[in-house]
Amino acid sequence: MKQNQILVLACMMLLSIVIVISCSKSKTSSSGTPSSNTVNIANMAFAPLSLTVKVGTTVTWKNNDGITHTVTSNDGTSFNSGNLSAGSSFSYTTTTTGTFDYHCTIHAGMVGTLIVTQ
After folding, report:
1. Containing structural domain, residue 107
2. What is the value of pTM for the model shown?
3. Alpha-carbon separation of residue 93 from 37, 40, 54, 68, 104 (angstroms)
4. Residue 27 domain-assigned (yes or no)
């Protein structure tokens, strides 16, 4: 009898795991497209901290903080969002390969990296 109870319990646990995995959603934006090329600005940080994309990809930074931020490449020429108020976004389409470190000009501790590959 105990073996049957253990077997039933094990099957229920396995079924629960399968259900949880199959019900998990992939991240999508409100338009239904993958949001893997989106950098969220929240809690005084860029997330993800580093993003790797291919040349020609459009990357969007979304300011989900309640204060203004910028997205400014460290080289000062690759991209610069200007001031992004709360709820605003900035998009940049990559044109060359390389590693582009960037920061918020208002908050020096906020940094991120965009890696563009072929």
Report:
1. 37-118
2. 0.70
3. 11, 17, 10, 22, 19
4. no
| Residues 6+ positions from 55 with CB-CB distance below 8 Å | 94, 95, 96, 97, 116, 117, 118
| Both structure tokens of 33 | 């497209």
pLDDT digits (tens, 9 = 90+) for 40-95: 999 999 999 999 999 999 999 999 999 999 999 999 999 999 999 999 999 999 99
Residues 6+ apart with CB under 8 A from 83: 68, 69, 70, 106
In a domain, 4, yes or no: no
Q: What are phi and psi of 106, to 5 degrees?
A: -85, -35
Within a domain: residue 64? Answer: yes
Domains of the chain: total: 1
Distances in whole angstroms, Cα of residue 10 to Cα of each of 3, 87, 114: 10, 47, 45
